[in-house]
Design a protein that fits this description.
The chain is α/β, with parallel strands linked by helices and 326 residues long. The chain has 13 helices and eleven strands. The structure holds alpha-D-glucopyranuronic acid.
């Protein structure tokens, strides 16, 4: 009896020691992003976190902070550079200021169609762009499809003339600023989270985004005309601090990378449904979707490409490479 009690205590002791050592070994990575919990990208990142937890037997956990709780996209990327955050979901527009290779994604009408854009994301070029920020202290793990963007306002935008002199919110991306200038508008960089109030109060006349972000951020309550001009296709990007990544074992790093790619595939499925559902929702809120003649927009932004050819050989090479990919 004494002996079996002894065995029992030893087993309980060992179990305590084991769970204590597991708790000690568990690493929690903080992930920040600026969309709400209903956005498809949040759901894709939940799958990412679940897969990482499962495949590492709970050694790596990812805690997701949505709604820009820990800072807007720029602030989050800076916090990641300072070591206060491990993972950030940003997008190629915001990344332009951190790594110029992302500029290509922000050029209007560079991609022939959706298939061309998606090809670039998985192509060697796409991978080069993801690793281009290495010297800034982070790398891209994967892209998340974020569809195409259109202008929206309180009045219909049918041609670039309708944008003339409007105060148009853009992301803090030099290419977005040049694009709106080329179209005759007045570009105003602003963080995503500040846009609802700015539109509502009339500080901003127009903005541009994909349809799910337009409705889920409630901009559809205040801007009732959405133009299907599809001027850009700008992917979201999941970034990880190189310091945080290097703290993981090789096996854990491989799990994180694979889970990110899997969540990107899941996002592609979620995206199409989300675009359809959110468009239907906007229509119920009396938003009018306007089909436009894209040629007038394409003509207006042509000088941007002439300018790049003259002043930015790196970007110009990238543009040529992207165009030749079938
Ligand atoms: C998209 C994108 C976000 C970005 C936002 C914006 O919704 O997914 O990452 O912040 O556009 O316009 O700021």
């Amino acid at each position: 009896m004494k002996n079996s009690k002894h065995v029992l205590y030893t087993v309980i002791g060992a179990l305590f020691a084991l769970s204590a050592s597991q708790a000690f070994a568990a690493t929690t990575l903080k992930l920040s992003h600026n969309q709400n919990r209903d956005h498809a990208v949040h759901k894709a990142m939940i799958q990412f976190a679940d897969e990482v937890k499962e495949k590492t037997d709970g050694e790596i956990r990812i805690r997701i902070y949505p709604d820009a709780q820990l800072g807007n996209q720029r602030e989050s990327m800076e916090l990641m550079q300072n070591g206060a955050l491990d993972i950030v979901k940003s997008n190629a527009a915001e990344l332009e200021a951190f790594s110029p290779a992302y500029s290509a994604f922000n050029l209007p009408y560079l991609f022939r169609d959706k298939a061309h854009y998606q090809k670039i994301l998985s192509h060697e070029i796409g991978k080069e762009i993801l690793s281009s920020s290495q010297n800034s202290g982070f790398i891209g793990l994967t892209y998340y499809d974020a569809g195409s963007r259109g202008f929206y306002a309180k009045k219909p935008i049918r041609t670039p003339d309708d944008l003339k002199d409007l105060k148009i919110r853009v992301q803090p991306s030099p290419s977005a600023i040049s694009m709106v200038k080329a179209l005759g508008g007045n570009p105003t960089p602003l963080a995503y989270g500040e846009l609802y109030t700015a539109l509502q109060q009339g500080v901003i006349d127009a903005a541009e985004n994909n349809i799910p972000s337009f409705t889920l951020s409630r901009h559809s309550e205040v801007a009732k005309f959405f133009s299907l001009d599809e001027h850009t296709m700008i992917p979201d990007v999941l970034l990880i601090s190189t310091k945080s990544l290097n703290k993981l074992t090789n096996e854990q790093q491989a799990i994180v990378k694979k889970a990110a790619l899997n969540s990107s595939k899941y996002m592609t499925q979620l995206w199409e449904t989300s675009e359809n559902e959110e468009r239907a929702k906007a229509e119920k809120q009396n938003v009018k979707f306007i089909a436009v003649d894209k040629v007038t927009f394409q003509e207006a932004v042509k000088p941007m490409y002439d300018d790049i050819a003259k002043t930015n050989p790196e970007l110009s090479k990238m543009v040529d490479r992207i165009r030749t990919i079938e």
